């Protein structure tokens, strides 16, 4: 499903060169639930960004669903992000000016489909995360846990095969974190969605099938 | 998707009311000036009653008599037009009429100033006047030297207090005419049809005009179709060569330069001051377009700056949209659409403001008989200008937004 070979990511500024990832070789099978752990600055988010085509590796190759993503044009990268990948961010990144259902519809705006179908799919995704009664609320009217559930609904509305969750419970208390984890586990078990989750919480990580540990941009297990 | 864009655009506008006010004011002011300019140009140049068939009308408006020591620019005379345009092949109707001349009338000791135009009967066939009462005089009236007249609504008001005037007598320029018809007021900038009183040419106080080649008259040729223009021009040129320079009664003239021009060719020549023998219609349109672009440049730059600064607020949104599948071109489309919505709002304000200003302008009577009423063409021009402005000022900020790196954008980092 996902394959990284000798992946390296270097951030360069005029003064400094930072090695964010180095020698990453990774294979993640379809339907796997994998967590990525490591101290701050170890390259966890960078790894997720590279897999999700938000960032390009400086070296090495990334395959997604059997397709090399090397040198793909912008439009094709956008299409893969839209069809294959769903993102969940630690800080939710909901658009405050849009209500819940409009936020959830965002990935579907970039597909050709009638608005009625888009609305139906968004409602279904909100039902899946237990927020069908909050469709007309704005993000600022929701709790942190509810906002993250909206973000999950947005990530799954397009039925992507891969979910990339960057510390999805990092901004939540343990009870809400547990709720989010249950939703992710359910998605993995019911829909066979491949999930890669960055977390600092070893208890949550232990509930996934595999833990990838990073230190200073290198894989340590 | 468009609904989403519109929703987003309106939200963004509400987010920073002061920015929005500045943007809308700049857009609204610019578009108001441009819409008013478009309205003035439209009322001056576009086909409208009584000049409804400008597309197949040619006119002899100007003449240049040149010699080694002389250059005389004037209107053609009656004799030249009578010889050169009557019976032209491909012409449906031709008319000869004088320039509108200021004349005085006295009514109960009160002086009334009017503009009088002397025309033939065919004038009323080419021009489609809206008659409030009565009919035009005819070719027969012209032939029989009948002292008949058509007057406009303002003259009827001045002389008869607005009551029916047909059949009544009117005194103008020391002559008395029987009124055959009353037409609506024609504004002064429609030079061909404009007058307050129209009378047959043959009622002139003397018949010197019949022997004059130069000055005082205009000839219009209504062609059967536009395809006939070249034949008409060729035949006119041929007839012109048959006029002996010695007949002009102006010593030293070697050549006469004059040609049938379309309304727009004549307008561009007048406005740009080009010689009669040159056609510069394209220059006129380029001039208007250039004026429009120059005028829009400053507010466009200011709008671009405001838009670019708005990017800073929207970095996270751009990151999210990219993460969920928006390509650069999609984002450019979104932001240009949003900007077009903003400018259309400004355009709507400008259209209302222009409407009010034009109505006040009309009511104030600054230009005699001007009726600057908005019409579909002006609305279309305003819409076109607003769209052009919207796209023009939106593309650069949109392009800049679309180039934001998604990771940086999600972190809220700027360009």
CATH topology of chain A: Rossmann fold
* CA gyration radius of chain A, whole angstroms: 17 Å
**How would you describe the oligomerization state of the chains in this entry?**
heterodimer
Q: How many runs of DSSP E, i.e. beta strands of chain B? A: 13
CATH 4th-level superfamily of chain A? P-loop containing nucleotide triphosphate hydrolases
Task: Work out the count of structural domains of chain B.
Answer: 2
Structural class of chain B comes to alpha+beta
The number of domains of chain A is: 1
Broad CATH class of chain A: Alpha Beta
CATH architecture of chain A: 3-Layer(aba) Sandwich
What would you note in describing this structure?
The complex is a heterodimer of chains A (221) and B (415). With 221 residues, chain A is an alpha/beta fold. Chain A contains seven helices and ten strands. In chain A, strands 6-7-8-3-9-10 form a six-stranded mixed β-sheet, sandwiched between helices. In chain B, strands 5, 6, 7, 8, 9, 10 and 11 form a seven-stranded mixed β-sheet that branches. A three-stranded antiparallel β-sheet of chain B has the order 1-12-4. In chain B, strands 3-2-13 form a three-stranded antiparallel β-sheet, with no helix packed on it. In chain B, β5 and β6 form a beta hairpin. In chain B, α1 packs across α11. The longest helix of chain B has 37 residues, at 328-364. Chains A and B meet through α2 and α3 of A and α1, α10, α11 and α13 of B.
